[in-house]
Specification:
The complex is a heterodimer of chains A (about 260) and B (about 400).
Chain A (H helix, E strand, L loop, with lengths): L9 E6 L8 H10 L9 E8 L6 E7 L8 H5 L5 E3 L5 E3 L9 H5 L6 E2 L8 E2 L5 H5 L5 H5 L5 E5 H14 L18 E4 L17 H9 L2 H22 L8 H10 L1
Parallel strand pairs in A: 1-9
Antiparallel strand pairs in A: 1-8, 2-3, 4-5, 6-7
Chain B lengths: L1 H10 L2 H23 L1 H4 L10 H12 L1 H12 L9 H22 L8 H4 L6 H24 L6 H9 L1 H21 L17 H27 L2 E2 L2 H28 L5 H4 L2 H22 L1 H4 L2 H25 L13 H24 L7 E2 L4 H12 L1
Classes of the chains: A alpha+beta (about 260), B mainly alpha (about 400).
């Protein structure tokens, strides 16, 4: 299973030091996907206003699906409506979804959103503007960004660019958020302040999807062992235990060793 | 025919009507919920995508653990003296699981596609495993209960076949229960970033399985006193006391495992310095684990109907606290979001719970569920006879 995990083909590179909180990316996304601004696929994270007058500062960054290399939502989804495609895009099949909302809890970045106001709600999440990519266009948010805070391109190039920028600009933190978070993602962040201060979720470098698989992949073993053990205990007691029928204490101890 | 039905209805205890009314109100609210959608009827949000319904489901499945625990004791460990408790317990399990399925259906945003978990499986999803196991296990419960409905002589042949296949079905049932009781814990493995470390653990499935055995036994023990009061029939108190002896062992091992896991992950200090979470954790452990372990170790408590009912209630409250903590109160807050259930959520839940009690009452009224248990009341027939003798 782990062997089949590859790095994404594309990536976003988002530089929080360039973001001016104009929110045109949110409008572009809303228009592109015909979703209301209340159930967005894309939103702002920020520090709020920091410091005391006149030394005020504020940092913001746009936030949307990170497109993990080993996505937690994909391993959680009951019906496989969320899948990671060969380009590394985490795509959502609206025709499969049963609306159980497990993905919303599973995602360490708290990305999947649900348009709860609908009678029959569905999940909304960034799909990297797959349709636009197929037409050779950039995702709507990257194409709209006025300050080029959102860059889009080949993942390798984006990563390289991030490292170069980090070297050239000493103001930036020495950490690319997304390079290793949750096992690596296809959305990379540069920031002049720590991601913690930007209110980004603190996520480990180990994908929770991996922990999930570690447990769920033991299911057949657990099932087999339980069934065999039960059959064994049944047969053993049937053949050897009958004369103990009337003594109370001995069988109780065997019961205990099971639990 | 109609007269007969009216006569039957007249004979019903008042409580049945009250329950039926609550079920009715719950049912109408449920229809409105399905029509209007989740946003209009619940307080679920992006920050709290699961609410009281999921916590209820987790608790209910744990309570229904009595069915597999008792089946294992009676059929696998062949302690046949407990057989009289099998049918009431299996019936409790069956109505419990049915209520879980109803609430799960309510909880689906796309309830119109509930069958998708059958045709679009994701084998790595714990929720997929849970839904399959619950579905299959409900079938096993129907099977285990079926002799109660097939008492008439014309079903004798069928009954014999059912009896013959009991052991394999029980093994399948206990296996399925082990799987889904534990995979309800697996649900939260993927949520390490959200669930507080006092509850989060890689061996959460084992904790869920162990506590379901504890709460299952507690349901059998507590249920026997309740049925003694309500139906006048129950499992012999000597046997109840014997079941009570298992509880300190199970809960004791559970407590050691819980503390041991926190020790191993270096999180013992969290028990005291996590504010609200510390309070919830300590409360859960004291009520649900420490207190009943001590109480059930006392012979006088085990042999006393009220004593064992109260101690069993502590286990049941403790296990539901654990499920509520794991799925709701123990979730670390997300800025800008909070959750408390709406009236509609509570009303639907109340309707389903009343339905559970109503279904149990009606089935045990018309079918010999308690047949093998001790009869503690004077039956109407005997009363009539006494009346006749007195008249003479």
């Amino acid at each position: 299973m782990l062997d089949s995990i590859h790095k994404g083909k594309y990536a976003f590179l988002i530089d929080a030091s360039l973001c001016i909180d104009c929110r045109s990316c949110m409008v572009a996304c809303s228009v592109e996907h015909n979703v209301s601004m209340t159930s967005t696929r894309i939103w702002m994270k920020g520090t709020g206003i920091m410091g005391t007058f006149p030394d005020l500062a504020s940092h913001t960054a746009v936030f949307h699906c990170m497109h993990c290399d080993d996505p937690s939502c994909v391993s959680a989804c009951t019906v496989g409506a969320l899948q990671r495609n060969e380009d590394g895009i985490v795509v959502y099949d609206a025709y499969r979804c049963i609306g159980c909302r497990y993905c919303m809890y599973a995602c360490p970045f708290e990305v999947p959103n649900m348009n709860l106001d609908e009678q029959l709600p569905l999940i909304v999440k960034c799909d990297m503007c797959e349709d636009r990519l197929n037409q050779g266009l950039e995702p709507a948010c990257a194409a709209t960004c006025l300050t080029e805070a959102i860059q889009f391109g080949n993942r390798e190039e984006m990563l390289q660019q991030a490292h170069t920028r980090m070297k050239e600009n000493p103001d930036l933190c020495d950490h690319i958020y997304g390079e290793h978070e949750n096992g690596g993602t296809s959305t990379l962040y540069l920031s002049p302040i720590s991601c913690d201060e930007l209110c980004f979720p603190c996520v480990g470098t180990h994908s929770t999807a991996y922990s999930n698989r570690q447990v769920t992949e033991t299911t057949p073993v657990v099932a087999g062992t339980t069934a065999l053990a039960l059959s064994g205990i049944f047969l053993a007691i049937k053949h050897f235990g009958n004369h103990k029928e009337n003594s109370e204490d001995a069988p109780e101890n065997t019961e205990e060793s099971q639990s | 025919m109609i007269q007969k039905i009216i006569e039957e209805l007249r004979k019903m205890p008042k409580a049945v009507y009250i329950l039926a009314v609550i079920v009715g109100i719950g049912g109408l609210t449920a229809i409105y919920r399905l029509y209007a959608g989740l946003g209009a009827t619940t307080n679920l949000s992006k920050g709290y995508p699961w609410g009281i319904w999921i916590s209820f489901d987790l608790s209910m499945v744990a309570f229904s653990g009595g069915a597999f625990t008792l089946a294992a004791i009676v059929y696998i460990f062949q302690k046949k003296e407990f057989h009289p408790a099998v049918y009431p317990t299996v019936l409790t399990g069956l109505v419990g699981y049915t209520s879980v399925l109803v609430i799960l259906f309510m909880d689906l945003g796309r309830w119109d596609r509930f069958y998708h978990f059958v045709i679009f499986p994701n084998v790595h999803s714990a929720l997929f495993e849970v839904s399959w196991c619950i579905l299959l296990y409900s079938t096993v419960l129907v099977y285990e209960l079926s002799p109660v409905f097939l008492k008439q002589p014309r079903f004798r042949g069928l009954n014999r076949i059912i009896k013959k296949m009991t052991i394999p079905m029980v093994i399948a049932g206990v296996t399925l229960s082990t799987l889904h009781q534990s995979s309800l814990g697996t649900l939260f493995i993927v949520m390490s970033n959200r669930l507080h470390p006092l509850w989060y653990s890689m061996i959460l499935p084992v904790f869920f399985w162990m506590s379901s055995i504890g709460s299952g036994l507690a349901m059998v023990i507590g249920g026997s006193t309740v049925s003694y009061w309500v139906f006048g029939r129950s499992l012999n108190q000597k046997l109840v006391a014997k079941l009570g002896r298992y509880i300190p062992w199970i809960l004791g091992v559970y407590l050691l495992a819980k503390i041991g896991e926190l020790f191993a992950t270096n999180e013992l200090n969290l028990i005291f310095n996590s504010g609200k979470f510390s309070f919830l954790f300590i409360l859960e452990m004291l009520i649900g684990v420490v207190a009943p372990t001590i109480l059930f170790s006392l012979k006088s408590i085990r042999q006393n109907r009220i004593g064992s009912l109260l101690s069993a209630t502590l286990v049941i409250i403790g296990v539901s606290l654990n499920r509520f903590n794991t799925s709701w109160w123990g979730m670390q807050p997300v800025e800008g979001y909070s959750y408390a259930p709406t009236v509609a959520e509570v009303v639907i839940l109340a309707g389903v719970l009343s339905g559970v009690i109503l279904a149990f009452t009606l089935v045990s009224r018309y079918f010999p569920v308690f047949e093998e248990t001790d009869d503690n009341r004077v039956t109407p027939l005997v009363k009539d006879e006494i009346g006749a003798i007195a008249a003479d």
